[in-house]
Amino acid sequence: MSEPMLALAGVHTHIGQYHILQGVDLVVPRGELTVLLGRNGAGKTTTLRTIMGLWHASRGALLFDGNDVTRAATPDISCAGIAYVPENMGIFSDLTVRENLLLAARAGEPDTARLEWIFGFFPALKKFWNQAAGTLSGGQKQMLAIARAIVEPRKLLLVDEPTKGLAPAIIQSLITAFRELKAMETTILLVEQNFSFVKSLGDTVAVMDDGRIVHSGRMDELAEDRELQQKLLGLSLDTHQ
Amino acid sequence: MTTTTPTATADAELPRLRLDTPPLLVLPILALLALPLVGSFPTWVTLTVAGLAMGMMIFIMASGLTLVFGLMDVLNFGHGAFVSVGAFTATLVLLPMQGWMQADSVLLNLSALGLAIALAMLVTGALGWAFERIIVMPVYGQHLKQILITMGGMIVAEQMIHVVWGPDQIPLPLPTSFRGVILVGDAAVEKYRLIAVAVGLVVFAAMFLVLNRTKVGLLIRAGVENGEMVEALGYRIRRLFVGVFVAGSALAGLGGVLWGLYKETLTATMGGDIMVLVFIVIIIGGLGSVGGCFIGALLVALVANYTGFLAPKIALVSNILLMVAILLWRPQGLYPVAKR
Amino acid sequence: MMLHRLLSGDFPRSRILALALLAIVAALALAPFLFPGARALNVAATICVFVVLVASYDLLLGYTGIVSFAHTMFYGIGAYGIGLTLHSVGPTWGAVFMGLTIALLLSLALALVIGLFSLRVKAIFYAMITLAVASAFAVLASQLSDFTGGEDGRTFGVPELLRPGFRLVEAEVFGTAINGKLITYYLVFFSALALFLLLLRVVNSPFGRVLQAIRENDFRAEALGYRTVVYRTLANCLSAVVATLAGALMALWLRYAGPQTTLSFTIMMDILLIVVIGGMGTLYGAVVGAALFILAQNYLQALMKQGSDALVAVPLLANLLHPDRWLLWLGVLFVLSVYFFPTGIVGKLRNLKRS
């Protein structure tokens, strides 16, 4: 197996007086979609934010593409090739769809062919191209947030609970988008609570609880093993379906 | 394999780009309401132009402050110092160049003034850079200390003006060709006020273009809404912030020169005094909103001028009453800025 | 035990601080006998009033984490309340109480309205709004000259007991005449002492602890079920009332109420400086800070003048040391103390003991 795209080794993160991450060991293999599962408050979002440098690890090390990024600043991490879709989507509601994507394209204007490819699975973005992003519906905002992360090719994509609060029809178009990205061998770390959504998408899976990784393995193994699912994910996942 | 899955919600027609018009209508309504109250049309024109001129100057001084707040959640209580320093710096050019100022030539007058403004903006911009480095940077995210520290910085700056320029007021006469009035019909309009309006419009237009048509402008607007996300997209918000801080300080310097020429005397506390109006303006406009700041400035100045004519006693508290009225209507100001 | 009750269990917790406090209180208590002379007594009375004024401000800034620029407004309302009533009604005790009542009600109403209006938002919002309101009030006071006396203010007569000409006993005690001025001084001194002890009681009560919890983390305090707006507004009102009383005392002492002595922004800056230099969040800081500050204001400026005169040949340096520039040095001191000694003199002294 080649060197992983991202590796966290014994990462601890404190937020104020709270000790959120308590030694996270996580490996994101190249060209695969890794799913990070866990109940609310397990530390999934904190893990992503720590990777992005929005919060700094108090202990442990983060290796991205062979480089130590433990102490790096957020813009440097972003420029090194990590794109981030936060839980609240983080779109700029005052700016238009076009302007949102323009800012994400660091090279200048977004590439037309790539845009057309994105419009293929997110047609709404083309339709509301010059509309303020704040006027979009929740699902369209999520599409914009993901489009912003992939408008230029990046080495690694971090996505935080994209299906949260969305209607099934929209979740379907998100599945399409992730299939497209997988077809291009994009490395993705996807945080989710919705197991049925990620069951068919994930290559590898890691489960978090209380600030630690409690299980990691292949997704197809977990998908088959009802007993393990029950043990790791409990009933809480079913309620989210 | 591009399978498009159009969904019900994704295709639902959206309302057109919403333009929040009511705040825009307040200004003309206010001006029209004042007309019958004032009674005489020429007086109304004079008052309105005076109000617009004052509003433009306040806008120039306030715009930087509101952006700085929006971008980094930093409120600089020492912003007024840049206004005073700008005005006093202008005297370094204008007083030795009395000859050009007094000459009956628009060109010479303008060159002297242009030089003075350039120097004032340069000095206040540099001062802003230093102020950000020394005073503001160590207290990011700590509002209490920010207020105290920037207030302290303002005292020091005001006192330094006294040290350099002495304790007395400095007269700053207008250049020859900007003095006097123009008759528009029966209405007498001071030339200098028209110039102030023109400069204000130019600054507003330039700012509008930068914020809407350039990538830096888009980044500033994006940063006001969600600075963290701007960083996550790979941009250094601190650099952006320092740039805005310096530009805002330079604009305050420009406002100081205009304001000083308007009052024709300079005092070290002139900046601190005008800050009260500036704060009211940025509260009314919505903290962080440039458009709101523009409308707020014009509103405050027009109300001050109309009530100053109609009921001088009320004029003293008219700004407070206006602020209360606006905040009762829109508690976050005219154009609240969406915050994460 | 009695001391414990008097100080509400909030001891100085530093030997040097305790000695300094004792010295200040003793000096103020015996000021008429220790430091004869009108100027010295005036300095002592000003210190008494400022201790109360600053302590009441610290209730807001240090204990509640609210920055207000309207404290001089309440101070001014107290002074003008006494001044204008005595001026128009005449020098009777009835007028004193009437003026005081009116002033207190006005302060309370204003504090309540401003508080409810703007305290639900951020600290920064409140600072801006109070700045605007206070400056409008100052302009109003100086412009409504028929009523307030404008820039000149109002001088007025006080009840006979407090007049300098009044003699309680004919004999002199330790060479000091027991006259109305002395009685006024002790009225100021004991009122200030009582108000200070009252504030000490407040900040050490459960109410005071909630305020500090809100200052530390208002989100959490709210989550624990405290209505932060209510607590902040109450603190605001209490602080305004005490400031009003301080203003009334000052007016009685000076027999004058005017914008320069009560409403000016300079006084607001003085209050801020004293709180920060003395130590935010500790009322003893107000005592130490006010004593040092007022003494420096009255005696250090003379020193600066000597320095300035000596350096008259060096143009810029002479300007720097000019007595009118003493605010410059205070400003520098202020900025430095916010950075390096955020806990002020009292915090330093307490830390000294610990290390």
Please give a structural write-up:
- The complex is a heterotrimer of chains A (241), B (340) and C (355).
- Chain A has helices at 44-52, 74-80, 97-104, 112-121, 123-127, 138-150, 168-183, 195-199, 219-224, 226-233, 236-239, and strands at residues 6-15, 18-28, 33-38, 57-64, 67-68, 82-85, 156-160, 187-191, 204-209, 212-218.
- With 241 residues, chain A is of the alpha/beta class.
- Chain A is globular, with a radius of gyration of 17 Å.
- Chain B is mainly α and 340 residues long.
- Chain B has one domain (51-329).
- Chain B contains 13 helices and four strands.
- In chain B, strands 1-4 form a two-stranded antiparallel sheet.
- In chain B, strand 2 and strand 3 (187-190) form a beta hairpin.
- In chain B, helix 4 runs parallel beside helix 7 and helix 11 (270-285) crosses helix 12.
- Chain B starts with 7 loop residues before the first helix and ends in an 11-residue tail after the last helix.
- Chain C has 355 residues and is mostly helical.
- Chain C has one domain: ABC transporter involved in vitamin B12 uptake, BtuC.
- Chain C contains 18 helices and four strands.
- In chain C, strands 1-4 form a two-stranded antiparallel ribbon. Chain C has a two-stranded antiparallel sheet with strand order 2-3.
- In chain C, strand 2 (167-173) and strand 3 (176-179) form a beta hairpin.
- The model of chain C has no long low-confidence stretch (mean pLDDT 86).
- Chains in contact: A-B, B-C.
- The interface between A and B is large, with 47 and 37 residues.
